[in-house]
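Re: beginner question about structure tokens

> Can someone show what the tokenized structure looks like for a real chain? I only ever see the sequence side.

Sure, here's an example I had lying around. Input first:
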Amino acid sequence: MSGKLLLKGGRVVDPSQRLDARLDVLIADGRVAELGAKLKDRDALSEDVAGCIVAPGFIDLHVHLREPGREDKETIASGTRAAAAGGFSAVCAMPNTDPVNDTADVTRSIVAKARAEGSGVRVYPIGAVSKGSRGEELTELGDLKDAGCVAFSDDGRPVASARMMRRALEYARGLSRPIVDHCEDASLSDRATMNEGLVSTLLGLRGAPPVSEAIAVERDVLLAELTGGHVHIAHVSTALAVDAIRRAKARGVRVTAEATPHHLLLTDAAVRESEYDTATKVNPPLRGESDRAAVLAGIVDGTIDCVATDHAPHALDDKRVPFDEAAFGISGIETAVALLLDRLVRGGSLPLTQLVALFATNPARVFSLPGGTLAKGSPADVTVLDLDRKRSVDPKRFSSKGRNTPFAGWSLVGWPVLTIVDGRVVHRAK
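And the corresponding structure tokens:
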């Protein structure tokens, strides 16, 4: 795009440059043109961001846009509007669509739809590892990459076969793409609706033991070590998994990981305290306090590289049913940043600079995506945060079609107020 935009008076926080200073940012032709104090440009549209944080555009590595096939739950248009409202300039779309994103034709249709109907937020498709995500036959990963896929995953279906995971890691290594795995031993977590523990026993619900996740993580890091491939562990939820990733990184294994806001802030007690609110039903499930604390520790010490939302919007009918019949997932992309700003940054558990790294710098590095920096010449994708803005979570105000959130009514301080993509404002908080 053409044109200039001058962001005036903000505090620029950019971990990629080890930068935390009050600077102006000049954007020209969709690129960062200059950073400096008291910049002037007569041709630029000036935007006063005094008192706000100016950060590289946030990237969500794990989003379900539902299109094609389940447009009743979400569309690319509504999902990208929600992303922009949540402070995200880019999202990675998981392949569990209908049809599954397992061919180049499906990938190209998602890319075209995002360009035609998206809010301006960048959409990076993730292709399936196996055809139909059934775990039986490997997809044409090279064709998927050429069509625009930035990673490969069977999403909510773990790659059950070690042989197939090995082949996928070897193939993806040559394409410089990661394999993203939902780590779960289905034989241990079959038909589970929540975490296995005291709460599930008290509620009489079938539980998934934490070891179910850890067994799969241990296998994946061993296969990544064997093949030299890059495995990315999705939505880490247990202490055992964090420990496995930490040990693997110490050995030099190419493993990265993400955690979600709901696993960082909630425990399985929320199921009981909410009286079986199906908004608390997620996969992997909310765990016990020791697991939650371990995941947070993994975030703080860098074992876990990124925060991703696992945004999983559902139609009302998918959630307004008995707990054990409800769909898994929450609509999380519009609340993720505010939740962590309020509960972790303001709470003193996480430095602001590290939060920016978790949402911007690290996701760009992990998936080799453009952005994640405000260095001169980089794409002009920017997230502006107001650390003093107060607002309560109101699902009725969501841009997403999904209203399923366990955080409804939470009063939060610190929200995204401006999202810029390619030098263009795609969302401005009202």
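Each token stands for a local structural state, so reading them left to right follows the chain. The CA atoms of residues 319 and 326 lie 5 Å apart.
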